[in-house]
Backbone:
C-alpha cells in the first residue's frame, strides 16, 4: 500500500492499552474539529467530530477532548486493537469560510 | 467502500503536461472537496464545490482548476505540471450541514 508521510511522528502502543493522540490547531475561529483515520493505501475515514462549544465527546471506543484555551485536541482510543494501526489526522473547520485545515498526522502502531 | 469513486487510480505523465482527475460523490451528496496529499506537506485542502458552485478555496495553485457538473461529479484539472505536483489527490463528498466527509480512494499522480 501507499506510505503516507514517511516522517510522521509515531506512537507505539501495546495491544489492549489505551492510546492518546494529540493535535494542536491553529485558528481560534475554527468551530468544528474532526479526527480522521487513514489506513495504508486508502483515503481518510471519519472517526468523530466535536463542536467548539463542547469539551468532550465520546464515540465507540473513542473520545475526543477539546481544550480551546491552549488550542489542543486529543483523540483517545480505548483498548487499542491491531486494526487501529493507521495514520490519524485532526482537522479544523471554519463554518464561516467552509475551509478545512488538516494537521500533519500521527502514525499509530499497535504492538502485539 | 466510501461510495466516492475516483479515476484514474494512477497517472504518470511528464512535466509541462495537463491532466484531468475525476470524482463521483456519494449519491445525495452535494458537496465535493479536493485535497492534495504529499509526503512533506500532509493533507492540503484545495477547493470545495457545492451543488455546482465554488464554495471555498484553499491552497490551490493558479495552474489548477476544478468544476462540478450538473450531475454533481467533479473534475480537477492540473496544467503545466511540475515535479512537485506528484502526490495523491483525494476527492471527498458530504451532505449539507454534516461534517463527515467521505473520501475516495485517491489518484496517485506521478510527474516525471
Residues:
Amino acid at each position: 500500500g501507499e506510505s503516507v508521510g514517511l516522517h510522521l511522528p509515531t506512537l507505539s502502543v501495546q495491544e489492549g492499552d489505551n492510546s492518546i493522540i494529540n493535535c494542536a490547531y491553529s485558528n481560534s475561529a475554527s468551530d468544528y474539529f474532526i479526527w480522521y483515520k487513514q489506513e495504508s493505501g486508502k483515503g481518510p475515514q471519519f472517526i468523530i467530530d466535536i463542536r467548539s462549544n463542547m469539551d468532550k465527546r465520546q464515540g465507540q471506543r473513542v473520545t475526543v477532548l477539546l481544550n480551546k484555551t491552549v488550542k489542543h485536541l486529543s483523540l483517545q482510543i480505548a483498548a487499542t486493537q491491531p486494526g487501529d494501526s493507521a495514520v490519524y489526522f485532526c482537522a479544523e473547520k471554519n463554518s464561516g469560510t467552509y475551509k478545512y485545515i488538516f494537521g500533519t498526522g500521527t502514525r499509530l502502531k499497535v504492538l502485539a | 467502500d466510501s461510495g466516492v469513486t475516483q479515476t484514474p487510480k494512477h497517472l504518470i505523465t511528464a512535466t509541462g503536461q495537463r491532466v484531468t482527475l475525476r470524482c463521483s460523490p456519494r449519491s445525495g451528496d452535494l458537496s465535493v472537496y479536493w485535497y492534495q496529499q504529499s509526503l512533506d506537506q500532509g493533507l492540503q485542502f484545495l477547493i470545495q464545490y457545492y451543488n455546482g458552485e465554488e464554495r471555498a478555496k484553499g491552497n490551490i495553485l493558479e495552474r489548477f482548476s476544478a468544476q462540478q457538473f450538473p450531475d454533481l461529479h467533479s473534475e480537477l484539472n492540473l496544467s503545466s505540471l511540475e515535479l512537485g505536483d506528484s502526490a495523491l489527490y483525494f476527492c471527498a463528498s458530504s451532505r449539507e450541514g454534516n461534517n463527515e466527509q467521505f473520501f475516495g480512494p485517491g489518484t496517485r499522480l506521478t510527474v516525471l
